[in-house]
Write a structure and sequence with these properties.
about 425 residues, alpha/beta, 2 domains, 4-stranded mixed beta sheet, 14 helices, 24 strands
Length: about 425
């Protein structure tokens, strides 16, 4: 298994281009199931999670032609099962549930089970589908779903689940009648999926808001689509630029979708300028500790919490970081402490007291964004940091070492 070795302390300089958003590409790939035919998808990021998802779709008879665009052939559907072996490694595989019940009228999808960042149930996905007439049975760890004809329904989500909203929206586009999803997730990736569905002929109102009104249509047809850029990847490069006191231009960034993140960085003393799709990080004054609380969009994203915490370890003063989305998302804390960070956890809050410097050390993490925070910290730490379990980073960061090397970082990937 590879590791990443970083000699820290080099201010990053130059330009980095952001890739397509993982969390938009996954539901959009799932949504191709809804329209039999040949799809052309642009800006699909080269990530391990995408390769895994393509394998899941492959099990259903979908075939792919690699390239730009990625060509997806969903003409023939030969299966409707997402097996445990895949869902346990990538929870987002549950995104096939909605499209499969809509197209094949049946699906068998393994329950995700526990994962590193908390219990993450899918009860709201199932409740919503049941309201649309889907019969759901749990059998040997699998959700078995069947329906004669999907019917529109009024659905109010207890909590605005992202993949839950996506699954229900994908089922609703081919249902009979009108579905209204209240308290829907407003994440930009949900809106990107909605726009793809509309491009294929779906009728959706309220895109980007917390009430989605979907009027079912008889059929969808493939339409070319360009996936939005990844706001979390952009935020991670922002953190890397800021923590090394670098001067970096982040291009192809979804600036409008990053307001909460950009405001927090500015509040922390990071000097930056933006236009429609660029963020310019300038060398600036000193970093100061600021408090942050994760929230559903448009609030501060839980997927940026770990990287922001890494930045706060070197800020002047204290920062209180509150995680409200997932109950167990502080696994990076013990590893950041190995680099010399001063952090205390109490329940869902972490108190970070800024230090003058971090010192390199071997570290590892158990999830994607925690690993990213260790890379961010390692870029600023004195000496050598080794980040183990690189496969987490491969899940969500396209060409990470290459992009950071181009910014002047001393970083390399070596077999462990
Ligand atoms: C998605 C993102 C993930 C991000 C998360 C929160 C994808 C592929 N993944 O994950 O990167 O961290 O949104 O922004 O887009 N919940 C329930 N019942 C359910 C579903 C969710 O109680 O049926 C709870 C979860 O436990 C959690 C909260 O709702 O506390 C939000 O989770 P959710 O939005 O569903 O996260 P994901 O869609 O899995």
């Amino acid at each position: 298994m590879d590791k990443i070795v970083i000699e820290g302390g080099v201010p990053l300089k130059g330009e980095v281009a952001i890739s397509g958003a993982k969390n938009a590409a996954l539901p959009i790939l799932a949504a191709t199931l809804l329209a039999p035919g040949i799809h052309h998808l642009y800006n699909v990021p080269p990530l391990a999670d995408i390769r895994t998802f393509k394998k899941v779709l492959g099990l259903m008879g979908v075939s792919f032609e690699e390239g730009k665009p990625l060509i997806v052939d969903t003409s023939r559907l030969t299966g409707w099962m997402a097996p445990y072996e895949v869902v346990k490694t990538m929870r987002a595989a549950v995104l096939v549930l909605g499209p499969l019940v809509a197209r094949a009228r049946q699906a068998s999808v393994s329950l995700p089970g526990g994962c590193a960042i908390g219990a993450r149930p899918i009860d709201l996905h199932l409740k919503g589908l049941a309201a649309m007439g889907v019969k759901i049975r749990l059998n040997q760890g699998y959700v078995e779903a069947r329906v004669k004809r999907l019917k529109g329904a009024e659905i109010t989500l207890d909590t605005p689940t992202v993949t839950g909203t996506e699954n229900l929206m994908m089922a609703a586009v081919l249902a009979q009648g009108v579905t209204r999803i209240h308290n829907a997730a407003q994440e930009p990736e949900v809106a990107d999926l909605a726009r793809f569905l509309v491009a294929m002929g779906a009728k959706i109102e309220g895109i980007g808001t917390d009430v989605l009104t979907i009027t079912g249509v008889n059929a969808l047809t493939p339409a070319p689509y360009t996936i939005m850029p990844d706001r979390i990847e952009a935020g991670t490069y922002l953190a890397a630029a800021a923590i090394t006191r670098g001067e970096v231009t982040i291009t192809n960034a979804p600036v409008a979708a990053m307001s909460a993140v950009l405001e927090k960085f500015q509040e922390a003393g990071v000097r930056l300028k933006t236009d429609d799709d660029r963020i310019v990080v300038e060398q600036g004054g000193s970093l100061v500790g600021v408090d942050v609380k994760t929230r559903p969009y448009p609030g501060f994203p839980t997927d940026m919490q770990a990287q922001f915490m890494a930045l706060m370890t070197l800020a002047r003063g204290a920062s209180l970081i509150t995680e409200t989305i997932f109950e167990n998302r502080f696994m990076h804390v013990s590893e950041l402490k190995r680099l010399g960070a001063d952090i205390t956890i109490s329940a869902n809050q972490a108190m970070v007291r800024g230090k003058k410097q971090l010192l390199g050390a071997p570290v590892m993490a158990t999830d994607l964004r925690a690993s990213a925070s260790l890379v961010v910290a390692g870029l600023a730490a004195q000496g050598t940091t080794e980040v183990h379990r690189v496969y987490h980073l491969d899940r969500g960061y396209a060409h990470l070492t290459e992009k950071l090397t181009a910014l002047g970082a001393r970083i390399r990937r070596v077999p462990a």
